[in-house]
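Q: Predict the assembly, please.
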Amino acid sequence: MKRLPPVVILAVGLVIGLLALFALGLAVAGQQGRRPEAGTPAPAFSLVLYDDHRAGLPKTISLADLRGKPVVLNFWASWCIPCRDEAPEFEAASRRYKNQVVFLGVNWLEIEAAALPYLKQQSITYANGFDTQQQVARAYRITGVPETFFIDRNGILRQIETRPLTGADLDTAIQELLK
Amino acid sequence: MRACLVVSARFILGALVLFLGVFLAARPAHAQAGSLEEQTREIAKRLNCPTCAGRNLADCPTDTCAQWKGEIATQLKSGRTAAQVTEYFTASFGPGVLQEPPREGGYLLAWVFPVVVFAALIATAFYVMRKSSRRGMATGPAAVTTPADRYADELERQVREGE
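A: Predicted assembly structure:
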């Protein structure tokens, strides 16, 4: 059998290398792309809170810092009408469960100039932050807003909701977290 | 064979040098020319819409894009350069907001690797064509024998015998 010339081997090797890199990239993206599921540990995150919306928490808060308390993690945007509809329900629930549950709002893809007036307009008092480089949104694989994740005191994800929630929905989910 | 390899290697190297030359010369210029609207549009053209896949910020009419374009204009008005504005969006929302991968660090691989592969494929094609044309020259006369050739050969043989 005739031996292939080195230049052909080199070229074929380069093409195979490129395809291998491409496949590896897809595999890694697929692994990272898996949405977290209820019953599994909630992905770790760190969130930089807006100065006027820290609710007594440090400027940068991580999920690990909140271990021991249930967390309601809500993604929102000011232009999102369903977010606007559910915002008063979240604010009321955060007051009802003050000291029992930590409410964390995460703004999705907006600049401060849009996010802060919205928070003020909605009279939101619970902690809200800016998702630097979309780290939290990527970790939770959100596909839009609003999306809400209920995390128990041990850091286990208990419920995922990809729809606007009512006060009754929040009560039901939080009661489960507090059991 | 050795000469052919050298030519192929030179070709790949030449293609790379040419690519890098064009690549560096084509770095996006961050000139601050034109009206505020034009400057905003120029920057927006280099950013992705954060909510619509594959659409650039300049052409997207969504609320989020309107906010972002407003922010670009605000930052330009405050005296920031186009590069600083782009850097702000990259730092805030990640390198995914850029229409093109950054021309630095590990992202360079995304630019250089396809060129290397393309150059390698061209070099291979060049090598194969050159080799087959040489083989054709070496074996050509014996391989092509038409009735007219055979007649001419026979005629030549008989003439030689007659002499």
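The mean pLDDT of chain A is 92. The longest helix of chain A spans residues 6-32.
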